[in-house]
Amino acid sequence: MSPATTLDEDIEEGLDAPLATVGGPAPAVRRARAWLSRAAEPGSVAFWRFVEDAGPVQAVRQLRAGRAPDAVRALVGARVEEDATAADLLRAQRCGARLLVPEDDEWPALALHGLVLTTAGEPADPRAHSPRTTALVPPVALWVRGPARLDALADRSVAVVGARASTAYGEHVAGELGHRLGQRGWTVVSGGAFGIDAAAHRGALAAGGPTIAVLACGVDRPYPAAHGALFHRIAEDGLLISEWPPGAAPHKHRFLVRNRLIAALTRGTVVVEAAARSGAQATARRAQRLGRQVLVVPGPVTSAMSVGCHELLRDPDLDAVLVADAAHVVEAVGRLGEDLADAVKRPTSPRDGLSDIACRVLDACPVRIGVSPERLAATAGCDVLEVLRVLPALELAELVQMTTTGWRLAPAPGPPVAP
Question: What is the CB neighbour count within 10 angstroms for residue 152?
Fold first, then answer.
């Protein structure tokens, strides 16, 4: 794209040019998708289908000429006359960002294929389409800030989401999950918000692992503003991504729309804390619709921040899996036979492995005063010879001891004495 050329000139030049070359998409394609990312709000089934059918260059040409279908033109509205593509691309370049389009080889086509399939299942009549804030529609382009490749990070990734007004318990669990997943080489994906999101991002960063923040505003605009330093760290080793161009404001409806990308880019979604009505629950349900695994961390039944988690676990249609640590998460979303969680280590006891007779004799032994084998046999309900057979083994295990008056339980070992 030359700064001296207008959008319409670039579009006209690109009509007969191939959509992509060896070095990537044609300049007209990238500029067209840059314009489309600002022209209409993401999430519209009708708009995505129009761009997919016509192609990005022809779609912009038809919209600018007023020849697009009425339903699509209504989605663009007054923005059709605007052209901020040159400014958007320059602003992205200045903050170290780039525009990633489906024609790029870095595009996470495999991860986003679930969105394509879901959109294909939408009815033909635009009046029957899913609402924009809940529809599972692929993005027309993504603004990406950071050095990593999105397709590589998304290949082994897990979403960790939850409440903004989180508890200390929730933040501890989210931070631990992010850290352990990062240590295992998994990418932690979240929304960069206060609470659970931030804890998960910070946990991954502390482990030196990659993390992706999916934003509801421009990648050059930290929101919340208090997370400016956090976003800077994420952009150094991971990625900030957004469907909205640089400078875009974080309007409330945009958070609902971006949640589908968090669910789609990952192999599974972990909900750490969620109120009865929350965006984290919505993300989990989108993940389920996309065929992704839903994982839930339980919390205290007295906590309002865990009500949503428990409701997800109780939903028979969701098939949610209860998880308590990163090993459980990786076992659920990893490769069969390769990412199994270790068995829980249970405390051992000297009684482990004792026979039924030995256990009964041990239970019959008094604590203080020793008694005879005959007395033990009567209490244990067995023969004296059986008592005499098991007592030496119990003594070797330091479970019983012989005294002047007979057999009794051996005293518990005390703390080691300092030299």
Answer: 13
